[in-house]
Amino acid sequence: MTGGNGDNIGSMRTLPSMFYKDPSLLEEMKEMIFARSWQLVTDVDRLKAPGQVVPHSVMDGFLNEPIIMTRDADDQLHCLANVCTHRGNLLVEGECHAQSLRCRYHGRRFALDGQMVTAPGFEGVTDFPAESDHLQSVPFASWRKFLFAAPTTDTPLFALSDLTQPMSDRVDFLPVEEYVFSPSRSRDYIVRANWALYVDNYLEGFHIPYVHPDLAAALDVKDYSNEIFDYASLQIGVSSTSGEGFEDIPKDSPDHGRNIAAYYYFLFPNMMFNFYPWGLSINVVTPLAVDRSKVSFLTYVYDESKIATGAGAALDKVEREDEDIVEKVQRGMSSRFYDSGRYSPKHEGGVHHFHGLIREFLGID
Question: Which of 22, 111, 165, 254 has the fewest CB atoms nearer than 10 Å to its CB?
Answer without folding.
Answer: 254
